[in-house]
Amino acid sequence: MSLTVRGGVGLALALLLVSCVPPPVIDLSRPIDPSRPVAELDVQPLLEGTGVRVGIAVWHPTLAFVQADEGWVARYEVVLRAWKRNGRRIAAEQSTERIVTVSSAEATTTLQHDAVALSLDLKPGTYWITATVRDRHARTEGIAGAVAEVRAVEVVAPYRVELRAGSALEPAYSSTLLADGHPVALQVRTDKEAAFQVEVTYARLQPEPPAPPDAPRGTASPLLWQPMADQQVGAGRGEVTLGLGVLAPGAYRWQVRAEDRVWQSGTWVVRDATFPVVTQWHGMVAALGYIAKPDEVEALRAVAPGQRRARFEAFWHSDERSSAEANEAVQVFAERLEAANLRFTERQSGWQTDRGMVYTVFGPPFFIDRDYNLEVWEYRLDSTSDRVTEFVFIRNTETGRWRLQREAAYAEPWAAAVDRWRTGRIVR
What share of the chain is helix, strand, coil (3-state, %, to 5)? Predict the structure, then answer.
């Protein structure tokens, strides 16, 4: 009989307060089940002609690995499609089958990715690029998307930039990197002879939750970009690699400038080495903002390092629930934060997005109705009624980010869900 493992076994509390104090003692053996493969896309113009080259990063913890003679094996298919914007017509399609082999079960749970590169021959225009990843063992699939603009040959961007990370500086098609101590580099390919300049800036990301479903969304604070690197590159054809060294967690933006214009630009995010697990005190306290009162969050933020474990336990172990209920609530909360990070990460960590917020507080929906740029999550929040609560998410076609349509009617189910968390009546 074969043995199958699904990745993501490290819960948030396994490393909570890693720089502070030991976590509470609870069962940390349950694996995270992300339910479907997760991929990220890096879309770049083809220098050789009209079209795009798409790098696809498929995260190992979201694939099902089966034990085999050579180790642990995952099999999946990638179907890459370009859709004409505002329509349903497929303009181009490519597909490939992949086999991933790792040496041990532990290797299936680390946040490594399998890199796939495919090209699409496209006429000038704006397209929605989708990559459907079908897991052959789990019989599940996930979809990732990105917007691509293909320009005419005479005005095509003459630069292509690849992010490279790891000891061998392999291409990193994921926009998520880990602060794992490995150097990072930008590789610039160009067919233009004029001199160009590469600028890299850095911004710190704050771990703040979005507004509740019943509140106005508000305006997010702009990132404060600070200069990090400003590299002048001489004229000539070919490839140039710019070493950036080991990067700290935060957001990084690069721009390729030449002839008084920006030809190419992009952003990637470096996260703590334990991502998708939430390990740092400030991140866990910020996530508690979903179920804690504002004054409770502020009080936890001000706690001295030596008192953090006791205050954390005091928050969960209240008079309204038993010790077993408190431990169960802590574990479910940690599991959902990790799963949200795997599924919904954009520039923010997954738990900070609208979908991550709903997933963390309400859990997995019993049904999701998906369309081109629409997801409707359905919940039956009252076990004594067939009443369905729907959360509607719209994808911004310019950025690819999902946003919840906030409604005042969400106030009642949100308050009821928070009350279940506070009284230990959480159901998986």
Answer: 20, 40, 40
The owner of tokens 């520039």 is 347
User: Read out DSSP for 191-249?
Assistant: ---S-EEEEEEEEPPP--PPPPTTS----PPPP--EEEEEEEE-S-SEEEEEEEEEPPS
Is the Cα dihedral 226, 227, 229, 235 positive or negative?
Answer: positive
Dig out the tokens for 218 from the structure. Answer: 């508000």
Write the pLDDT tens digit of every residue in 190-247.
877 778 888 999 999 988 899 999 988 766 678 899 998 777 777 666 788 888 999 9
d(CA 96, CA 83) in angstroms, rounded, equals 18
Residue 29 burial class via C-beta count within 10 angstroms: exposed 0-12, middle 13-18, buried 19 and up: exposed
Task: Confirm if 393 and 355 have CB atoms less than 8 A apart.
Answer: yes
AA letter at 25: V
Query: How buried is residue 259: exposed, middle or buried, by Cβ count under 10 Å (0-12/13-18/19+)?
Result: exposed
Q: Does the pTM exceed 0.85?
A: no
The Cα 214–Cα 217 span in angstroms is: 9
Instruction: Specify the residue for token string 């990105």.
Output: 146
